[in-house]
Write a structure and sequence with these properties.
Blueprint lengths: L24 E6 L6 E7 L10 E4 L11 E2 L1 E8 L8 H12 L5 E4 L6 E5 H6 L4 H15 L5 E7 L2 H22 L9 E5 L11 E3 L12 H10 L5 E5 L3 E3 L4 E2 H10 L25 E6 L4 E6 L12 H8 L8 E4 L19 E3 L2 H7 L20 H11 L2 H17 L2 E3 L7 E13 L2 E12 L1 E3 L6 H4 L2
Parallel strand pairs: 1-4, 2-5, 3-8, 15-17
Antiparallel strand pairs: 1-7, 5-8, 6-7, 9-10, 9-11, 12-13, 14-15, 14-16, 18-21, 19-20
Helix pairs in contact: 1-3
């Protein structure tokens, strides 16, 4: 691109989705080992913006020790005659896309979860200053969003300054989110879709509704509407809701049609309010993962910044790998923290009455939205670090899932002793026939076409599986 001749590395969409491994990185900015980091967009009056100004507060890239991880704040301040504060979220989310256009510069996540890596190769080519990064952002904002007339960009690496501004950024995020609450999915005829993360997850389309934020937590229904209006050909677009097919599960004909088209037929059906059967796909930028725990017939939730292992012994990164990439995996659900404040939060699966474990940090953040009769019955890492301890805790607290255990005991006693045998010598009895039989194994879906399965003996026992428990 001619506008980037003075940038020492290439800039273009070809670099979206580029991954930089630890051994190949020069420095890391933000990420899981850094407590405070953020990126924030603010709309300001025209006379408060010096167009094209790039400010660096703290050490520049070339001054950071190789291999280290550092605090970072990115502040984008914009002005325009028709620009208003309702577009701040739209501007902010573009930071992710634009920075990923830079060769050897990997940007993940959003808001207070940003994770950036610069490759050694690009650093050696001369990408050693935020000045160059700022120039790329400035030119892309001005060229791709003409509604922005002026923009100035500040990079903050001074840890004390990042810590000082961090609470203000968090308050801005909360204020935006609060404005979006109240509107219901039933009140609108359009949802919005986002494909910003398809460079990382080709079969993922984020469906944004009034009661379901984007997985990354950065785009509300109002943000989606504003973005689609400002940039109709951009990565955020309107979805005609269409016919309501299943109110409980959250299935809409318009959503199915758009998702099928945007994933080249890989995903054909989406249920918005459940983690089973046809769950909403997950990208890689989600804030948290809800995961099914069959031993207790409930869900755990773990967020990106949680540094320990969850109650089932798995870390966030391991659980994230189980659901990322645009796949639909039964019992796993990448999502935003804001979605946990919605009345549609896993509503088809029982909502908060099905949540049994989550980190104390998350519980504190969403406590005002957890029903009062269940909040003290949900365990954190302080109450249970394993499934056995969790089960005891839930039983002691009489969590709503305990009633589900009791309901299963009677049929379990009968089914446990049931054994079906085929008496005819030399023959086997058919136990399953299907035109297309999917089997989940090791993270892969194996499909047996025109399958007929035979067995000499069938033993029927109760198993707490996703399929039996989801209803």
């Amino acid at each position: 691109m001619s506008m980037f001749k003075d940038i020492p590395v290439d800039v273009g969409v070809i670099y979206e989705g580029e991954r930089i491994r630890r051994n190949d990185m020069q420095v890391e900015l933000g990420g899981p080992t850094v407590k405070e980091k953020f990126e924030l967009a603010k709309v300001k009056p025209m006379d408060e913006i010096e167009d094209g100004k790039i400010t660096i507060i703290g050490p520049d890239i070339k001054d950071l020790k190789e291999g280290g991880a550092y605090a970072l704040g990115i502040l984008v301040e914009a002005a325009g005659a028709t620009l208003d504060q309702g577009l701040e979220g739209v501007i902010e989310r573009r930071i992710h896309g634009y920075l990923n256009y830079i060769e050897g510069f990997m940007h993940l996540n959003q808001r207070y979860d940003i994770w950036i890596r610069l490759s050694k190769k690009s650093f050696q080519k001369g990408l050693n200053s935020f000045e160059s990064i700022g120039k790329v952002l400035y030119r892309l904002f001005k060229s791709e969003l003409p509604i922005i007339e002026k923009v100035q960009i500040t990079f903050i690496t001074d840890p004390a300054k990042v810590a000082e501004l961090y609470p203000n950024a968090m308050q801005d995020y909360e204020s935006r989110d609060a404005k979006a609450r109240g509107l219901k999915d039933e009140d609108v005829d359009k949802f919005y879709g986002c494909t910003l993360c398809q460079s990382f997850a080709p079969t993922h389309v984020c469906v944004i509704t009034p009661q379901r934020y984007s997985n990354c937590g950065a785009i509300s229904w109002f943000d989606g509407k504003a973005s689609a209006n400002v940039d109709p050909k951009g990565p955020v677009f309107a979805i005609d809701r269409g016919e309501l097919i299943n109110a409980e599960k959250g299935e809409f004909s318009g959503v199915n049609e758009v998702v099928k088209k945007r994933t080249m037929g890989e995903v054909t059906q989406v249920w918005l309010y459940t983690a089973f059967d046809h769950p909403h796909t997950s990208c890689g930028c989600f804030e948290a993962v809800a995961f099914y725990i069959p031993e207790v017939d409930g869900f755990g939730v773990v967020n990106r910044s949680f540094k320990g292992v969850s109650v089932n012994g798995l870390s966030f990164s391991t659980l994230a790998d189980s659901t990322a990439g645009g796949r639909q995996i039964d019992g796993f659900h990448g999502m935003s923290i804001e979605y946990m404040r919605s009345k549609k939060f896993l509503s088809a699966d029982g909502g908060w009455n099905r949540i049994v474990w989550l980190p104390k940090e998350v519980k504190e953040r969403v406590k005002d939205f957890i029903p009062k009769d269940v909040i003290d019955k949900i365990a954190t890492e302080e109450n249970a670090t394993g499934v056995d301890a969790l089960k005891s805790f839930l039983k002691d607290k009489n969590h709503p899932v305990v009633a589900r255990w009791a309901a299963e005991e009677a049929p379990a006693a009968e089914a446990e002793a049931l054994e079906v045998k085929e008496e005819a010598a030399g023959t086997m009895m058919p136990v399953a026939t299907a035109a297309s039989l999917p089997i989940m194994a090791g993270g892969f879906k194996i499909i047996l076409k025109d399958a007929k399965i035979y067995a000499n003996k069938v033993i029927i026992t109760t198993v707490k599986s996703e399929k039996s428990e989801k209803r």
